[in-house]
Amino acid sequence: MRDDPMRRRMETALGRLEARAEAPRVLALSAGDRARLGSVIERARAQLLGPSEPVLTVALAGSTGAGKSTLINGLAGHVIAEVSEIRPTTRHLQVYHHRGDDLGTLTEELASEAVFVAHDRPELRLKMLVDSPDLDSFVIRNRATTKALLKRAGLVLYVFSPERYLEERTWTVLRQETSFSACAAVLNKVDRVGSRDELEQITADLRERFASLGLDDIRIFRVCARAHVPGPDGTLPDLAPVVDDMVALRAFIERELQASEIARLLRAQRGQVVTHLRAEVDRLAPELTAAKLDEVVQIAAMRAERAAARLSSTLADPLAAAEAELAPLVTLRRHERFWGPFRIWLATTDFLGFGLTNLVRRILGRKTDDGSGAIERILGRGGATAIEDLIRAEAFALQDLLFTRGLPIERWREIVAATTGTRVISEVAAEIETHFDVTASHDDEFRRKVVWAASTLGNVVPSAFVVIALFAMLRDVLTSGSAGLTLLWQLMVIVILFFLVLQGVVGAVLPGGARWTGLGAGARAVQKVIARAINGWVAAYRADLLSDVADLREPLDILESALAEDREAAILSLPQAAR
């Protein structure tokens, strides 16, 4: 992975994946799930964000007494790792590497405790041999060191001895690790095998075990590593094993593993790591999650409609009382549009019909009053308990639905806890008031013409009567008569009758109160608020869960895309005949 932008993309993707694994919004990940996913992410980070130069880490892993240290000494041609009968001998990593190779495949923690032995052998360029502590060690730190190394290794040589090649503790680790890295098996200490038949049986047993792990074609080298380690005097031990594949093992490491093969192994390993990471994510966040959520959304919408209908029926009386309290608002707001004498007349009749303006404002719960909210008080007195019971019932019903669909419910409890009966009452009251306010404020061309015509008539007709009355009174003054005063009272009666008729006509053309707003404003408010609450629960839950799933799945798409680009670039770099 030499492309820095590609590396940054993968690093960002892994960071996003890791962050969501550590702190999911909705997904309920157990401590074991988080540890397992974290381990896979760590492995992916080790393989995908390693050094740009393709240095192959060849790890020697095996059980206690398998002869790993002796084997690395034999491959090196001299003693670089301590060998002893005391177990465990290897407590730290022993790294045999070329001086010019990048050691970045080892983490800082591993490198800080490793013993490095440099060499100048060109046949081992870009290959770093690492001896590791025992896989079956009872020392936790030793096992952790070896497992951390296996996360970094591109090729693992699993080393066995004839005495302990079926040790279950070793095979338990192999079942977890063999699917991630290329591997080969080394049966060491074949000089201790009594006959060729016994050796063939051990080999067959190993091949059968590896076949059960899906590695039918694994290469098995049978060696006597001790025969290739010179003693203090520089001479080799006089051993004559039945079979010794040390030459073949050296040829495999030194000649077969060239730069192109190393790059291929590393690419294959990266692909396997990402495949395993996707399998782990699929286990924790199945693809059916979105379909299950869609089903929950549909069911929740139906439940919300039924719940609102039940609540509207239960709160029929409080809702009717609330509507009755607000009905004067429509008439008052309608009358505010008129002007002139007719507006004065309407204000007078409103005062007589609806009481003091401050009383109306107090009913509406305006900011200018004590803020108590009359509509909320009316609904609260009549239905606080019913609303609270309905909210809890719907929350538990949908929680059970999520549980039966295999979806986590911890986050659901947090979401629904924010919805209380008091909050619902407040929202219903606000919806009712808003409905009346908007409806009363509604205007159109026809209404404007009616207002203009009525106001004009209310201005012209009384003005004409006033002129007539003034003329009559002036005549009385000039003639010393009294007919003008009688006429004045008659005209006043006529004006009052005129205003009554005009008000009746306007009322017929522009109805007020419930006739203006229509019936069922309270029921519609309940429907809207309950639907908003229940659908809001599901929407918030759905958004958080899908966000979790996206944060786990989208990084995988980025990683797979980056690997595909890397493979394509590798193919294009080959000669035409080799493609």
Class from secondary-structure proportions:
alpha/beta
Tell me how many strands there are: 7
| Mean pLDDT across all amino acids | 82
Residues in helix, %: 55-70%
Question: Would you kindly provide a brief summary of this structure?
Answer:
It is built from 20 helices and 7 strands.
Helix and strand layout, with pairings?
Blueprint (H helix, E strand, L loop, with lengths): L3 H19 L8 H18 L7 E7 L5 H9 L17 E5 L9 H5 L2 E5 L7 E5 L8 H13 L2 E6 L7 H10 L4 E6 L8 H17 L7 E3 L23 H11 L2 H26 L4 H26 L1 H20 L5 H14 L2 H8 L9 H31 L5 H8 L3 H21 L3 H35 L3 H27 L3 H5 L3 H52 L7
Parallel strand pairs: 1-4, 1-5, 2-3, 5-6, 6-7
Antiparallel strand pairs: 2-4
Helix pairs in contact: 1-2, 1-20, 2-9, 9-20, 10-14, 10-20, 11-12, 11-14, 11-16, 14-16, 15-20, 16-20, 17-18
Provide key terms for this protein.
single chain; alpha/beta; Rossmann fold
Structure, described:
There is one protein chain. It is rod-shaped and about 160 Å long. It has helices at 4-22, 31-48, 68-76, 108-112, 140-152, 168-177, 196-212, 246-256, 259-284, 289-314, 316-335, 341-354, 357-364, 374-404, 410-417, 421-441, 445-479, 483-509, 513-517, 521-572; strands at residues 56-62, 94-98, 115-119, 127-131, 155-160, 182-187, 220-222. The chain is of the alpha/beta class and 579 residues long. Among the domains are: 55-258, Rossmann fold (3-Layer(aba) Sandwich); 289-444 and 513-551. The protein has 20 helices and 7 strands. It is 65% helix and 6% strand.
